[in-house]
């Protein structure tokens, strides 16, 4: 039977609900990029499911004309896991934020990543609690003054990418609200990847944390953003004049043509390498080290997903079972007759 | 089998307690005795009583593991109050159980385990085997360890391995006393060890026979005991089940009847873990057992699977139910099916993990934020865990609601004969699924049961959003309209209340009207029924209304309550069901009998209490 081929446009994925984010919020760009990416994915509209937790970003499913579930704080990933395991044919997207995924949902996040169910996670990172009006989050920078840290935040922040690497996640990418075309492309790659794909989306909270990512996302700061692609040299800057090199155990920024540096000296990105060492350096780059922030697919290392392994066990048990049906099971073991 | 020259005594029922150190294999000994007795056609009930620690300090009272079995030729409802035979493998086991044996009855001890060191570990200030401490009992002081080693000499085993078979030696002795054959246990040992450890199988079988022969030689008791009586079990084919196993099987049966695969998302917790383990064994029936990272992920993943169209189940005990509270509210709000099995244990907090209690009733009914009604059902025997997990699943699926099934440690770990259910005897389960092509379908429109339809992801044209925010009463879109919230709050309550239309009537055992109505719920049924039956035989005017359906209550409850002069509610908590009845039927007066010792009721204490109430003016 020929599969029914339907051409969708992004409008097919917009619901009739009014989008209620603040004007100027970075989340609009992410919503748009997702809706534009979806027609290019080989998935039927009814097979998309968007599942979120609580927070500004978690309103996302209401704006999608797909199956959606706006759940409870921090648990979206656990819910999405159940949905995907119940029906592996679905394309399950988990929408979460820095508070939802890394504070209240931190445990689910690391376990989802190590478990590697084929889920697509978009982690909206604005480094602040927006919906509760401006408290620090697990990604808020040290020293940052917020409503609950009036003298400055005194905890070291999480870096989502580093958590993913630490939990041996299979796919990690970073995007920003200011580059919608790049975002769209990365979402398509995340969908294509079989396993838990985590996409960290740097997004601007215009009300409580405005311009927090500008150093790495504003168009005037090209020297601070590196877009990696598998198999390509790590070049950046307005003229692609800068590159990354490995110096001992450290990444360093170099300029082509300066100190005899040539293109051959520049690191070539390998997203498929099992070891996480370089990946950890790449996700941490830009943390007060003079390096650019890295965007794009930083890690994509294929391995059997949880559900593939689960199905293999089901098949093997089916083949070897002595019970054809429940009546067989109930009557197994020692039985006796009362006459 | 027993020699024909020995005369035998006939009894209708007997209670045996096997007790030893938690490493002595008493659970195995007890289950073997039960299995053999069941095959002989006896009715029975068992109760394992083991410490929370896997290996509590050896030889101490806290490390004692016990297994009580009540067998009879007649109807057996409980594992029995007091033992007729106590097997005590060390001083700690004797010390912990001496108050649970009937006067003048038999105690078998391993005399080798009463050294100074053993007595010190058990904190005994003198050796109970010396002097008159045990004069009230018939004590068989058998050097079990020595005799076991002697019997196994020549097999080439070390002393420690040989000593491990002493439980089989003891079992052999008890088999002789009750004229039971050895073949069931021999077969078991061969199957368990035969292929991989043939020597261990051989040693255990040898020890079993040696124990039987020893008891026969010393004539451990003057007369072998024969269990007689009129069989009261219904005709049919039986097997033994443990409560947790029966719960798992009821769920599997509901899956087959509804055509919805089981998704069981859980986190291990005593005493509920066996349900997760049992379901994990049956992947070939389409059951997905998912061991989550915590209790919350257990229920959350289950809710996700419910959204996707599974028969969604999560299993836990009291502390886990507390953690699941918020997610349960989400299932209430989204009106998705969900079965939560709570195998209750002593609380609060970590409480008594391996002991039984009925103190999570209020948590089940009300333990969530907001007006958050769920159906609550309770099983009342190891065997009916099957029926109630099946029916709880049916209600969850057909009424699109969370259902909490309350069992307890006593039911979950207890075992009893189960008349094997045939799948074609069970009713169909028809969830309100809606298929592609449904026109003008609205996510929160309701059918005659006040139930919304279930459109599962993957169904073309029915894309919709659900969530924890209040829903518009038809479209399911987010709504903050005041009147809509009132309407939705009321309809969620009415939907659960309406389940009562689909429940059978509450049945009364004993007198249908009269002086005293005993009320119980859940796992105490066996003890209550035994007490009420005894008292009825003694000529008292007494009836028992035992509840399995807690929320909603059955339609005829009020009629029943009105037919007795006095009502007493007996439960293993401080009066939670009594208070619930007071809320629902304030016109009646309820007396209470409450026990919170981590132990089931004894029939004796119940009868004392009920007689007291009957004699009061």
Short description:
The complex is a heterodimer of chains A (339) and B (617). Chain A has helices at 27-37, 76-86, 98-104, 106-115, 160-166, 180-192, 214-217, 277-284, 306-320, 326-330; strands at 48-52, 67-70, 91-97, 119-125, 171-176, 197-202, 225-228, 235-236, 242-247, 250-255, 293-300, 336-338.
N- and C-termini, Cα separation of chain A: 55 Å
The total count of strands of chain B amounts to 23
| Structural classification of chain B | alpha/beta
Which structural class do the helices and strands of chain A define?
Answer: alpha/beta
* Count of distinct structural domains of chain A: 2
The fraction of residues in strands of chain A falls at 15-25%
Largest beta-sheet characterization of chain A: 8 strands, mixed
CATH architecture of the largest domain in chain A: 3-Layer(aba) Sandwich
Question: What does the average pLDDT of chain A come to?
Answer: 95
Shape of chain B: globular
Question: Helix content range of the residues of chain B, please?
Answer: 25-40%
- CATH homologous superfamily name of the largest domain in chain A? Thiamin diphosphate (ThDP)-binding fold, Pyr/PP domains
Number of helices of chain A: 10
Q: Briefly, what CATH class of the largest domain in chain B?
A: Alpha Beta
How many H/I helices of chain B? 20
Tell me the CATH topology of the largest domain in chain B.
Pyruvate-ferredoxin Oxidoreductase, domain 3
Q: What string, H for helix and E for strand, traces the elements of chain A in order? A: HEEHEHHEHEHEHEEEEHEHHE
User: DSSP strand (E) fraction of chain B?
Assistant: 15-25%
């Amino acid at each position: 039977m020929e599969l029914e081929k339907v051409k969708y446009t992004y409008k097919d994925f917009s619901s009739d609900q009014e989008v209620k984010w603040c004007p100027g919020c970075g989340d609009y760009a992410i919503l748009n990029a997702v809706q534009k990416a979806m027609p290019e994915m080989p998935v039927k509209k009814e097979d998309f499911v968007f599942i979120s937790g609580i927070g500004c970003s978690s309103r996302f499913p209401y704006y999608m004309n797909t199956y959606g579930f706006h759940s409870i704080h921090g648990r979206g990933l656990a819910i999405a896991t159940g949905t995907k395991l119940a029906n592996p044919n679905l394309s399950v997207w988990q929408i979460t934020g820095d508070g939802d995924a890394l504070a209240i949902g931190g445990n689910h996040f690391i376990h989802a990543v190590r478990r590697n169910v084929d889920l697509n996670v978009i982690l909206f990172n604005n480094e602040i609690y927006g919906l509760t009006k401006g408290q620090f989050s697990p990604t808020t920078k040290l020293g940052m003054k917020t409503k609950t840290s009036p003298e400055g935040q005194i905890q070291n922040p999480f870096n989502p990418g580093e958590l993913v690497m630490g939990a041996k996640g299979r796919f990690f990418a970073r995007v920003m609200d200011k580059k919608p075309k790049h975002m769209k492309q990365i979402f398509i790659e995340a969908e294509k990847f079989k396993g838990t794909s985590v996409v960290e989306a740097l997004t601007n909270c215009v009300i409580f944390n405005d311009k927090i990512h500008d150093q790495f996302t504003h168009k005037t700061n090209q020297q601070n953003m590196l877009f990696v692609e598998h198999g390509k040299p790590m070049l950046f800057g307005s003229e692609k004049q800068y590159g990354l090199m490995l110096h001992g155990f450290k990444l360093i920024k170099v300029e082509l043509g300066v100190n005899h540096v040539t293109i051959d000296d520049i690191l070539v990105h390998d997203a498929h390498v099992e070891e996480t060492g370089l990946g950890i350096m790449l996700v941490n780059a830009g943390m007060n080290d003079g390096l650019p922030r890295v965007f794009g697919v930083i890690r994509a290392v294929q391995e059997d997903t949880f559900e593939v392994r689960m199905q293999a066990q089901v098949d093997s048990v089916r083949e070897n079972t002595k019970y054809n049906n429940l009546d067989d099971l109930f009557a197994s073991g020692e039985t006796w007759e009362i006459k | 089998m027993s020699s024909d020259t020995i005369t035998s005594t006939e009894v209708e029922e007997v209670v045996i307690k096997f007790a030893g150190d938690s490493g002595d294999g008493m659970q195995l000994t007890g289950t073997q005795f039960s299995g053999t007795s069941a095959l002989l056609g006896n009715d029975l009930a068992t109760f394992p009583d083991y410490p929370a620690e896997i290996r509590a300090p050896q030889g101490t009272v806290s490390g004692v593991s016990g297994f009580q079995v009540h067998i009879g030729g007649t109807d057996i409802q409980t594992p029995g109050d007091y033992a007729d035979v106590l097997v005590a493998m060390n001083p700690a086991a004797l010390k912990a159980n001496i108050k649970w044996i009937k006067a003048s009855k038999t105690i078998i001890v391993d005399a080798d385990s009463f050294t100074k060191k053993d007595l010190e570990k058990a904190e005994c200030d003198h050796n109970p085997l010396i002097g008159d401490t045990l004069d009230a009992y018939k004590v068989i002081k058998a050097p079990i360890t020595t005799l076991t080693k002697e019997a196994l000499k020549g097999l080439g085993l070390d002393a420690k391995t040989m000593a491990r078979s002493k439980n089989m030696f003891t079992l052999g002795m008890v088999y002789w006393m009750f004229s039971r054959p050895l073949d069931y246990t021999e077969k078991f040992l061969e199957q368990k060890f035969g292929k991989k450890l043939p020597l261990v199988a051989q040693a255990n079988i040898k020890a079993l026979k040696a124990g039987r022969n020893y008891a026969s030689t010393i004539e451990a008791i003057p007369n072998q005991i024969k269990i007689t009586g009129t069989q009261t079990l219904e005709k049919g084919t039986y097997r033994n089940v443990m409560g947790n196993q029966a719960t798992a099987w009821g769920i599997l049966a509901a899956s087959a009847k509804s055509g919805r695969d089981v998704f069981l998302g859980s986190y291990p917790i005593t005493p509920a873990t066996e349900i997760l383990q049992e379901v994990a064994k049956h992947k070939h029936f389409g059951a997905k057992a998912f061991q989550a990272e915590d209790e919350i992920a257990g229920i959350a993943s289950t809710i996700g699977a419910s959204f996707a169209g599974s028969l969604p189940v999560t299993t836990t005990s009291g502390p886990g139910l507390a953690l699941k509270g918020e997610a349960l509210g989400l299932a209430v709000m989204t009106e998705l099916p969900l079965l939560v099995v709570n195998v209750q244990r002593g609380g609060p907090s970590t409480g008594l993990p391996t002991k039984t209690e009925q103190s999570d009733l209020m948590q089940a009914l009300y333990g969530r934020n907001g007006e958050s009604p769920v159906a609550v059902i309770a099983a009342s025997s190891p065997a009916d865990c099957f029926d109630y997990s099946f029916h709880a699943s049916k209600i969850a699926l057909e009424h699109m609601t969370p259902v909490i099934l309350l069992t307890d440690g006593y039911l979950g770990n207890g075992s009893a004969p189960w008349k094997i259910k045939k799948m074609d005897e069970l009713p169909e389960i028809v969830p309100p699924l809606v298929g592609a092509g449904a026109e003008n379908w609205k996510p929160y429109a309701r059918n005659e049961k006040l139930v919304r339809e279930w459109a599962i992801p993957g169904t073309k044209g029915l894309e919709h959003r659900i969530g924890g925010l209040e829903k518009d009463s038809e479209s399911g879109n987010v709504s903050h309209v005041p009147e809509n919230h009132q309407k939705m709050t009321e309809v969620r309550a009415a939907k659960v209340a309406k389940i009562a239309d689909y429940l059978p009537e509450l049945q009364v055992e004993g007198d249908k009207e009269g002086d005293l109505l005993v009320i119980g719920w859940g796992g105490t049924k066996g003890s209550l029924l035994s007490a009420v039956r005894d008292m009825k035989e003694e000529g008292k005017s007494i009836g028992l209304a035992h509840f399995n359906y807690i929320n909603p209550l059955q339609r005829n409850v009020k009629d029943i309550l009105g037919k007795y002069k006095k009502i007493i509610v007996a439960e293993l908590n401080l009066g939670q069901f009594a208070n619930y009845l007071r809320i629902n039927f304030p016109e009646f007066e309820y007396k209470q009998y409450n026990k919170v010792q981590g132990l089931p009721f004894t029939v004796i204490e119940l009868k004392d209490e009920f007689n007291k109430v009957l004699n009061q003016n």
